[in-house]
Specification:
The complex is a heterodimer.
Chain A (H helix, E strand, L loop, with lengths): L5 H15 L7 H13 L5 E3 H5 L9 H14 L2 E3 L7 E4 L5
Antiparallel strand pairs in A: 1-3, 2-3
Helix pairs in contact in A: 1-2, 2-4
Chain B lengths: L2 H38 L12 H13 L3 H17 L6 H23 L14 H23 L3 H30 L3
Helix pairs in contact in B: 1-2, 1-3, 2-3, 2-4, 2-5, 2-6, 3-4, 4-5, 5-6
The chains are: A mainly alpha, B mainly alpha.
């Protein structure tokens, strides 16, 4: 079993609360997508669309909604397309710590 | 890094974070919350805080770390007791209260798991924040009851502890929402 990041679990917990209380600034799908991307990215902070679509948080999301949320996250700066112009590849922008 | 060294490093990091956050929330309670409370509610009979953030730290540490929350929180709890009570912190009743403070939340989570309600983080499971609040309430009642046994405090204090613990857990989670939103903002 792979190690579960405590910080990621804490973020998921407060994310659930945020959604329940209607406090989120992203739509529920956008936020799920962003958290899925945060969970999946490798050392180079890149994720692939194929991996995101299959993530457990996004299995119930339709393809059009998924891609609309993806575009929205790119426009809001949470994700950006890979510099290599590789289709279906996105960079998860690093939060400021 | 060897596995054992890595685990020790992880444990020391957890202990530093959990104990520091615990101590800081206790300091915040005594330096900010209680003075403000005394101004806003001067007729309030209890000396207990109506917003006790350290309870949230205890519950979330136990949820995330399980038994390891006990040694991870212990330095912070001891420091907090010394901060509040001076060297009287090492009186038997206060030592008992320290044990209660660090152990009740993990015991509650494990007891609930044994009863079939496993709330610990697991891959593929979405955390349930309302369930954590419920555990926070159970933990608060148990902690208050056991602390009352140690200190012999009144029923008014018992209710005040419960209100303070629950508001502390809820507003602590709410504060985390805005903290994560702040650190997650795009560059």
């Amino acid at each position: 079993m792979y190690k579960i990041s405590k910080l990621a679990e804490l973020r998921k917990l407060v994310h659930g609360m945020e959604r329940s209380l209607g406090l989120q600034d992203l739509s529920p799908v956008e936020r799920d997508l962003y958290y899925a991307a945060s969970e999946l990215f490798e050392d180079d902070r890149q994720v692939r669309t194929v991996g995101l679509i299959e993530h457990s948080l996004l299995t119930d999301v339709s393809r059009p909604t998924f891609f609309r949320a993806l575009r929205s996250l790119v426009s809001k700066g949470y994700l950006s397309q890979c510099a290599s112009a590789n289709r279906g590849c996105y960079v998860v922008n690093q939060p400021k710590f | 890094m060897p596995v054992r060294t890595g685990r020790m490093h992880e444990f020391l990091l957890e202990t530093t974070i959990a104990s520091s956050v615990y101590f800081l929330t206790v300091a915040f309670t005594f330096l900010i919350v209680i003075p403000v409370q005394n101004i806003l509610f001067p007729e309030y009979p209890s000396r207990a805080s109506l917003l006790f953030l350290p309870h949230g730290v205890r519950v979330l540490s136990a949820w995330l770390m399980g038994w390891r929350a006990i040694p991870a929180l212990l330095p912070g709890v001891i420091a907090a007791f010394v901060y509040v009570a001076g060297w009287d912190a090492f009186l038997p009743s206060r030592l008992a209260a320290m044990v209660v403070a660090v152990s009740v939340a993990p015991v509650t989570f494990f007891a609930l798991r044994a009863a079939g309600w496993n709330l610990f983080p697991a891959a593929g499971r979405s955390p349930c924040w309302i369930c954590i609040l419920v555990v926070g309430a159970i933990t608060s009642v148990l902690t208050s009851a056991l602390t009352n046994l140690a200190f012999g405090t009144s029923a008014v204090e018992f209710v005040a502890y419960l209100i303070g613990d629950m508001s502390g857990l809820f507003f602590g989670l709410l504060a985390l929402i805005y903290l994560f939103r702040f650190v997650d903002r795009p560059r």
